[in-house]
Amino acid sequence: MSLNKQFGRYLFGFSLILAQIGFGMSVSAVPRTKVEGNPVPRVSTFVYAPVKLLPNIEVKETLSDRDIPTGDGGFARDYAISLKAGDRIAIELSSESFDPVVMLMNAEGKTLGKNDDGPDGTSNSLLFTRIKDAGTYVVRVQGFGETSSGEFKLKVSKLQVQQ
């Protein structure tokens, strides 16, 4: 038997005797491990930074588990768009992979509009609104329920008033 094993066995036996006498030592059958240095806990950092979105340009993206968790098992992605007071916009969101939901929020995160199923009878989303105040707005893409990952198309169109 090696000297280390012998010493460990005697130390364990001595600890049992001291514990029985009442010296308050803790006895554990689990071998102790020594950690070198100060272990640093792994912390996942997430920096909120909506993707910049330009009007009248369709984006084709993929929603995945690398996006914002919604709390109901699904995921969301935010896009930032600058709009002027009086702008009339149409937000179109479509996907063949999941049931898309589109939301428009102001800079404080207040929901100004939301659409799950568009008027065409499909599960695609279509939202019309008029912008009251100039500023940066957030367009949120998410899926309905837990099935919210896959490819999607998003387009914010500025509408023109016909004279």
Report the span from N to C terminus: 98 Å
Derived from helix and strand composition plus strand pairing, the structural class reads mainly beta
Estimate percent helicity: 10-25%
Low-confidence stretches: 2-33
What does this structure look like?
- The chain is built from 1 helix and 10 strands.
- By secondary structure, it is mostly beta strands.
- The strands form 2 sheets. Strands 1, 3, 4, 6, 7 and 9 form a 6-stranded mixed beta sheet that branches. The chain has a 4-stranded antiparallel beta sheet with strand order 2-10-5-8, with no helix packed on it.
- Strand 3 (68-69) and strand 4 form a beta hairpin.
- The longest helix has 19 residues, at 3-21.
Question: Which characteristics define this entry?
Answer:
mainly beta; six-stranded mixed β-sheet; 1 helix; globular; disordered N terminus
Q: Topology of this protein?
A:
Elements: H1 3-21, E1 51-52, E2 59-63, E3 68-69, E4 75-83, E5 88-94, E6 100-105, E7 111-115, E8 125-130, E9 135-143, E10 150-158
Parallel strand pairs: 1-4
Antiparallel strand pairs: 2-10, 3-4, 4-9, 5-8, 5-10, 6-7, 6-9
Q: In summary, what is this structure?
A:
With 163 residues, this protein is mainly β.
